[in-house]
Amino acid sequence: MQLSDFSPAPNQGGNPELYETENRAVDPGGLVLDALAKIAPWQGRTLVDLGCGSGYWLGSYADAAEVIGVEPDPTLVPRAAARSASARVLHGSAEHVPLPDASVDVVHARFAYFWPPRCERGLREVLRVLRPGGTLVVIDNDWRNGEFAALLRACAGSAAMGGGDRTDAWWSERGAERTEVLSSWAFDSRADLEAVLRMEFPDGTADAWLEQHPEATGLSYGFVLFSVRRG
Hints:
By secondary structure, this protein is α/β, with parallel strands linked by helices. The chain has one domain (16-149, 161-189, 219-229): 3-Layer(aba) Sandwich (Rossmann fold), CATH 3.40.50.150. The protein has 9 helices and 7 strands; from the N terminus they run H-H-E-E-H-E-E-H-E-H-H-H-E-H-H-E. A 7-stranded mixed beta sheet has the order 3-2-1-4-5-7-6, sandwiched between helices. Helix 1 (16-25) packs across helix 8 (190-200). The longest helix has 11 residues, at 190-200. The protein is globular.
């Protein structure tokens, strides 16, 4: 199936092994998962991990009645399918969710919606598959809080992305609730931190930050969760 809304991600799609290292470092205290569970509990419900990548987070939803991963990158679908025997992984995208109308209770999109307004069609498609009362939660970067936010603001192209204001306004216009979670990245080694930051900021922003923080093996990281409920 050809997906018109898909372009390979330079991080996970380009270097899935290094992205695994990044995933292991993310939110070591589980603060984001705790917030997700509070906003839209999935215990005993059907949950979709939209843009599930290699399936790293699928195992976090073991107490759901059913877990479905949806991933647009055909090279990552088999990785995700092999990762969790209990989850079903489908080739699809935000604009092409291969599920029936009103068939799921919770949808998580972790870094799958970055720069509105390009995600209007995807939002309509997700609302289609949600049951009445179901919830979409989009996990995005906080551009204001945490050391990672400073890196985002310093990187090339940050002005074009609106520094988060455009994203906040877009979701607010659609009635989304906004939740901030200040967490961290914690790496096993300095080398891992350096490799991941250079992958995410290949324009030199990472090098400047690393020079200023020579002993760091992690950094503070802010997340923003946008949640939309289907009426």
